[in-house]
Amino acid sequence: MIYSKGSVFATIIMWSIVAMRPGGSSMIVTAFTIASTSRAREVAAISFRPQGARTFNTQGANNALAMKKHPFLSNLRSSTFLRQSSTSIETDSKLDLAKTLEVTHPAFEVIERDVVTEYGAYCSLYRHKKSGAELLSVSSEDDNKVFGITFRTPPEDSTGVPHILEHSVLCGSRKYPTKDPFVQLLQGSLQTFLNAFTYPDRTCYVVASQNVKDFYNLINVYADAVFHPRAVNDPNVHAQEGWHLELEKKDDPLTYKGVVYNEMKGVYSSPDSLLNRASQRSIFPDNTYGVDSGGDPTVIPELSFEQFAEFHQRFYHPANSRIYFSGDDDVYDRLEIMDEYLKEFDYSPVSKEKSRIEWQPKKFTEPKKEIEYYPVGGNAENEPKHMINMNWLVNDEPLSTFEELTLGILDHLMMGTTSAKLRKTLMESGLGEAVTGGGLSEELLQNTFSAGLKGVAPEDVEKVEKLILDTLEEIVREGFEADDIASSINTIEFQMREFNTGSFPKGLMFMLGSMSKWLYEKSPTESLKFEEPLAELKKNIEESGSKIFQDAVKRYLLDNTHRSTVELAPSATLEEEQLKEEADRLAEIKKKLGDEELEEVLKKTDELKALQAAEDTPEARATIPSLKLSDLKREVTEYPNEVSENENDSGITVVRHELGSTSGIAYMNLNVDLSSLSFDDVPLLPLFTRMMKETGAGDLDSVALSRKIGTYTGGVSVSLLTTALHPEGSDPSVVKEGEHLQTKLQLYGKATTDNVDELLSIFKLILVEANLDSQQKVIEMLKESRARMESAVQGSGHSIINTRMRARHRVGAYVDELQGGISYLETIKALLKQAEEDWPSLLARLEKIRDTLLEPSFVRGGMMLDITGDKAVMDKIKPSVDSFLNALPGDSNGKKPQDFYSRVHPWVPEAKKRMAEMVPLIDEGFVVPTQVSYVGKSGMLYEEGERIPGSAAVISRFLRTGYLWDHVRVMGGAYGGFCTFSPFSGFFSFLSYRDPNLDKTLDVYDAAADALMGAADALEADPDALATAIIGAVGDMDGALQPDQKGATAFQRWLINESPEYRQKYRDEVLNTTPEDFREFARRLKEMKKTSVAVVSSKAAFETAAQNGKEMTLTDIM
Question: What is the pTM of this model?
Answer without folding.
Answer: 0.91
